[in-house]
From TrEMBL:
PANTHER family: ALPHA-MANNOSIDASE (PTHR11607), LYSOSOMAL ALPHA-MANNOSIDASE (PTHR11607:SF3)
Protein name (record): Glycoside hydrolase family 38 N-terminal domain-containing protein
Xref: Pfam families: Glyco_hydro_38N (PF01074)
Gene3D superfamilies: Glycoside hydrolase 38, N terminal domain
GO term, biological process aspect, one: mannose metabolic process
SUPFAM superfamilies cross-referenced by the UniProt entry: Glycoside hydrolase/deacetylase (SSF88713)
Length: 59
């Protein structure tokens, strides 16, 4: 997902979820010149419902 860590472990509020994903994507862009297009979740329970909503939001 391009984030620095898994949301449910470090960013329980949706604002924090957006912020840490933004920071992670910025890091990848600056360090490697790439933008994430796909993501994966190593948590056996998968993404939270909020994460799915945020990824599908048209902003």
């Amino acid at each position: 997902n391009g984030g620095m860590c898994m949301h449910d472990e470090a960013a329980p509020h949706y604002i924090d979820m957006i912020e840490q994903a933004t920071l992670g994507h910025g890091f990848i862009k600056e360090e490697f010149g790439k933008t994430p297009r796909i993501g994966w979740q190593i948590d056996p329970f998968g993404h939270s419902a909020v994460r799915a909503y945020l990824l599908s939001a048209e902003v």
